[in-house]
Amino acid sequence: MLRFSAPVYVPLISFYSLLSYIAMVWVTWSAAQAIAETIIGSGRLNTRSIDGQLVRLTLRLIAVFVALGIIIEGASRLGLPAYSVLTGLGIGGVAVALAARESLANVMGAFIVMIEKPFRVGHWIRVGDIEGTVEDIGFRSMRLRTFYDSLVTVPSSTILESTVDNMGERRYRQVKTTLALTYDTPPARLSQFIEAVRGLIETHPASLKGTYHVVLHDFGESSLDVLLSFFLDVPDRSSELQQREDILMRILECADRLGVSFAFPTRLIRFAQEDKPDDLAAARTG
User: Where is the Mechanosensitive ion channel MscS domain positioned along the sequence (predicted)?
Assistant: First the structure.
């Protein structure tokens, strides 16, 4: 049995207590992470979804407060005044906040996004000039997969300060275009074509009834411009493209059946022929 004198025994006990409190802090943090992953797994949540990240963030915050309590209690047991420990933590926290303002802004932005949930993983959104599908939502940033297959990382603070247009939350999807017809189209045939397109939109199974517009809208530089605007009642981008193609193909068939031709930009250029000096002299003498 080892025996230590007081000058050796007291520091050893203090060191052992310090290691014990450090271990308790580590166990608290690890337990919070394990509980978060268990909740996400049992709830069938996407590991990178907003709900999953919110569960992680909440448990991490709880772990931080519990760890602070352990640190204060440990400092008190080791003979350090709790007031001094809190003051030191406060000063250290201010120093860290000043040194990592951008990181804290990103964390706060991510927290607000997780609470408000303006979008989710898989949504098609626009953030400023960036457009794509949300692939990942983290504490510091969000990742968007653009339609040309690049991966863009957007800081959470940028999302908080920008206008986010969530295209994935649209109830209906608008299709708006101009049908340019040639100027030699007779008025009666133009009216028949417009009525035929209206009937096509009205009877199509994917169109939203009563909200479409098919009208002669303008006299273009080289065409009669017919405005075509309608909404599709479809669940996603893929269905939107398929139904849009189907309607446009039917419009082409309708135009072919009625003998209506589509115009293309044309320019008629007239060249003024300059008179030659000999011709001018002959004209004067004549």
Answer: 103-167
